[in-house]
Amino acid sequence: MRLLAKAATAACLVLLSACAARPTPPPETSAPAPPPNQTPPPAPVPPPSPAGRNAVETGVKIEVPRVLKQNEAARALAAFRTSCGAVTARTDASGLTQGSDWRPLCAQAASLDPSFAPGFFYYGFDWVKVGDGRAFATGYYEPEIEGSRTPRPGYVPIYRLPPDLVRCTKQDGTTGRGRIDETGTCILYYTRAEIEDGALAGKGLELAWAKDPVDLFFLEIQGSGRIRLDDGTVMRVGYAGQNGRDYVAIGRLLRDRGILPPGGANMQAIKDWIRANPDQGRELMRQNLSYVFFKELTGPGPLGALGVPVTPRASVATDPNYVPLGAPIYLHKADRPEVDGLWVAQDTGGAIKGPNRFDTFWGAGPEAVAIAGGMSAAGEALILVPKGVAARALAQP
């Protein structure tokens, strides 16, 4: 996943400046100049298809390209480049693209002057609407919690991925994450409560220990983060796997029970309630059966589902059944303008399911926490796929 989340970045894109001696794109009120050796082919506008299991079955409609601001296009170009090695080699579950579709664009992006980034996205891609295009976006960030590499009183374990967590076929014929019991039968893996009560204790799976179980719970929701160790050093951890159990949003439970008002179930309000009501809070967290396992990251990070670092305000987590990982995504008309702009699908998340569902990545630090923790935005989305690909998808029966 993404970072559970997550698994997942920029509605407001950081400026990548071009050299003053290079050509300047035309005004942003008209179509930008095409990159060198590229001309804009015509694009048919097909009718939408019925809903389905992936983007093609849900329905794809080709839309008119949007003119991007120089800074957001340059920022997205930089993020797009980082995905190219993984995108060209993976299978796309959305039904929209094949790995080979991305190679010409990736080759062009590798050496393209950022001043031509608006034209790159305008002319090189089909801008498509999946389903009705109505989007919902949340936010995630890279949290920092206190912890230790060795057990300490009151601290709780942060677990590595258990070797007995496997994909197997259960007795009802479904295949998914589970474990093989003593009879050789594939069964569901341990729940959050069972793991917290010691189901994995003594197996040498402890990666580190967290000072606060509430902070660890929210670290799982984010899918990656930093652990400020008691010796002053920092361990960066990333998503390694999940127990296969359903994710339950505890904020929704608090709203449904009338404990927090509609719109009041942001991350900080949930944390405050749990800490003010420790026994009830512990049981509330256990209502989310999903449990996330971590691995230590030693390079740049955090890493998204593509195995490349996600970029603050430029990377987004999506459902790969509806959005090709590595594809640019244009969010617009959002009721939270921070998310409007061009993003790149580089992550997935356990709670990020369905068409036009997105989780925007905001980085680390207090501002990122404030934006991501309260992010809940409705708007519209367009998915950018290589030029000509949408017509091929529409021709599928």
Write structural notes for this entry.
The structure is a single chain. The protein is of the alpha+beta class and about 400 residues long. Helices cover about 25% and strands about 25% of the residues. It is built from 11 helices and 17 strands. The chain has helices at about 55-60, 70-85, 105-110, 115-125, 190-200, 215-220, 250-255, 265-275, 280-285, 365-375, 390-395; strands spanning about 60-65, 125-130, 135-140, 145-150, 155-160, 165-170, 175-180, 185, 205-210, 225-230, 235-240, 290-295, 315, 330, 340-345, 355-360, 375-385. A 6-stranded mixed beta barrel has the order 3-16-13-15-14-17. A 6-stranded mixed β-sheet has the order 5-9-4-10-11-12, with helices on one face. α2 (about 70-85) packs across α3 and α8 packs across α9. It starts with about 55 loop residues before the first helix and ends with a helix. Residues about 1-30 and about 40-50 have low confidence and may be disordered.
